[in-house]
Amino acid sequence: MQAVVVLDRAAGLAGLHSADRPYPHAAENDVIVRVHAAGFTPGELDWPATWTDRAGRDRTPSIPGHELSGVVTELGFGTTGLSIGQRVFGMADWARDGALAEYVAVEARNLAPLPADVDHVTAAALPIAGLTAWQGLFDHGHLSAGHSVLVHGVTGAVGSVAAQLARQAGAYVIGTGRSSSRRRAAELGVDAFIDLETEKLADAGSVDVVFDVLGGEFLEPSAALVRPGGTLVTIALPTDIRPADGRTVFFVVEPDRVRLADLVQRVRDGRLTPAVGAVRPLSEAAEALQPANRASGKTIVSGGDR
């Protein structure tokens, strides 16, 4: 089958290229999915699981891309809850080959049924961004109606979903980004916007939750914004930085079939719109995913609606 692979960790994104790879094996409780659309997170190439399996053995060449939408073509032994021919979407396993390929083997529990009125491209942009935003805001940040939240990178894939979910929960939303992001932030319905190029983060005032996707120099000033009892949630890197009278949570997104079903229903209702950028065929994926070629929003690699 055709796939996008990466051979060398040191080469980074420049090491992505097209190649022929073996058809995947359906292990116990797996399904094989014919991939119609897939998403890629640039940070994947820094994850240890991209390069080794769970036993620490080298698994290069590796196929990246860990969110997908497609159709089930094969069931592994003991697999229940899904059927051949069913439309599904969800997350591929971290320590196994991903979805930038014609077919992928995925644990059935990591997938949810995809309604017929949601297209594969939209669905492929939803799993990681949607689950990360939900888990960060509500499972870890305990955000609720009447709270305030500052969302860094509010027009990005994760930030834009976080802003929409926080607004629906009745929170006051402050977004951050570059000057060029102000208009899009307004379209997302944020209550206030901080231009990180020209304005001070401290101008945001105090908030109950900071949702951080940036890390680095923004962590310490972000922690200073958190009210007593509040939470700094970050997906960037583990950190020792803490609010003066609050807590910091670093987490890695986890699959959740029930939550995926809720998120896709919000898409169907028009309450949630994932940030889809360029859509490119698998044959152009290696080039399209280079930093110089990526457009605003999440680049989706499409295998077509077969």
UniProtKB/TrEMBL annotation:
Listed SUPFAM superfamilies: GroES-like, NAD(P)-binding Rossmann-fold domains
Classification via InterPro entries: ADH-like_C (IPR013149), ADH-like_N (IPR013154), ER (IPR020843), GroES-like_sf (IPR011032), NAD(P)-bd_dom_sf (IPR036291), YIM1/Zinc_Alcohol_DH_Fams (IPR050700)
Signal sequence residues: none
Cross-referenced CDD domains: MDR_like_2
GO molecular function, one term: oxidoreductase activity
UniProt domain Enoyl reductase (ER): residue ranges: 11-301
SMART domains (alphabetical): PKS_ER (SM00829)
Name of this protein: NADP-dependent oxidoreductase
Provenance organism: Nocardia vermiculata
